[in-house]
Design goal:
The protein is of the alpha/beta class. It has one domain: P-loop containing nucleotide triphosphate hydrolases (Rossmann fold, 3-Layer(aba) Sandwich), CATH 3.40.50.300. Helices cover 31% and strands 23% of the residues. The protein is built from 11 helices and 12 strands. The longest helix is centred in the middle third of the chain and has 18 residues. The relative contact order is 0.13.
């Protein structure tokens, strides 16, 4: 789909005020421990639209809430507040049976191909399970569909009877991708799908995801902490800091003219060859990400911001449109 067609397409996924807090007392097996009333504020009031046919890259440091947002977006986790509408339907209004039917159109590719595949199941069993659960195929048709999808991700029929431990990391991620696409979804959350892989294998998987998107008409939320990967795969970029979207816009605008100090710091952290333009005027990121249990008041980035003023510590900034489609959450942006 061309860039102009994507821009004109309606929103497939609409998040409004999306919030997810966790009880910090819940430890192993969900048992309550520690003091009551202490919440991990993983996601706070996120507004984000994802248009049909586009890839929205979600970038931020580890622990900022990216993966949680991806899971809440497809209702793997229940939101604490706010809403997600998928193709016009509010996911919170669906009954378990209705959600199961819609689940076919909402899938996720997990970060770790070593942990996300059941080691006791063969590839045939792993890929056939979604079809069986949704009663979409059986018998020879089921085997044919599994074989066709395996071929689509670059593996062959000789792999059907093998088990996850018999594959490399890149091959396992191909199996994870095939499993996510078995039900012919419309929207796929790619949760750090290449971060556990070698650099050479990353390029192969990114290329595969791009080809499948074009061939199958997919829409992606692509989550990563690697800004180079996000810049390569995305049509639009959303920058997340401590549970909030602080900047969002077209890829070239966010990477070419970042307006939020956090985005500028992320870009400054990318290694550059000495003498290349773009790095001198940007302040490298200092300090550590604050705890989501006790986030700073006002603008959450202000303790680490090189240009913060007194107002930043007192008052949370509103989101400002700096150009069409490009929004920034900062007091100092005009």
């Amino acid at each position: 789909m061309s860039t102009s067609a994507i821009t004109a397409a309606p929103a497939l996924v609409e998040m409004r005020g999306l919030t997810r807090h966790y009880d910090s007392r819940r430890g192993l097996w969900g048992r309550l421990t520690g003091n009551p009333g202490v919440l991990v504020q993983a996601v706070n009031g996120v507004d984000l639209d994802i248009r049909r046919g586009e890839t929205v890259g979600l970038i931020g440091e580890s622990g900022c809430g990216k993966s949680t947002l991806g899971r809440v977006a497809i209702r793997l986790h229940e939101p604490t507040a706010g809403s997600v509408r998928f193709d016009g339907t509010d996911l919170a209004t669906l009954s378990p049976l209705e959600l199961k039917r819609l689940r076919r159109r909402l899938q996720i590719i997990f970060q770790d191909p070593y942990a996300s595949l059941n080691p006791r199941k063969s590839v045939l069993e792993l890929l056939a399970t979604p079809l069986r659960l949704h009663a979409l195929a059986s018998g020879p048709e089921l085997a044919d569909r599994v074989g066709a999808m395996l071929q689509a991700v670059g593996l062959g029929p000789e792999h059907l009877r093998r088990y996850p431990h018999q594959f490399s990391g890149g091959q396992r991620q191909r199996i994870g991708i095939a499993r996510a696409l078995m039900l012919e979804p419309d929207f796929v959350v790619c949760d750090e799908p290449v971060s556990a892989l070698d650099v050479s294998v990353q390029a192969q998987i990114i290329g595969l995801l791009g080809r499948l998107k074009r061939e199958l008409g997919l829409t992606y939320l692509f989550i990563s902490h690697d800004i180079a990967v996000i810049g390569h795969v995305s049509d639009r970029i959303a920058v997340m800091y401590l549970g909030e979207i602080v900047e969002e816009g077209p890829r070239d605008a966010v990477l070419g003219d970042p307006r939020h100090p956090y985005t500028q710091s992320l870009l400054a952290s990318v290694p550059r060859i000495e003498g290349t333009p773009g790095g001198a005027r940007r302040q490298r990121l200092q300090g550590d990400l604050p705890s989501p249990v006790a986030p700073p008041p006002g603008c959450k980035f202000h303790p680490r911001c090189p240009v913060a003023v007194a107002r930043c510590a007192r008052e949370a900034p509103a989101t400002t449109a700096v150009r069409p489609g490009h929004r920034v959450r900062c007091h100092l942006v005009t």
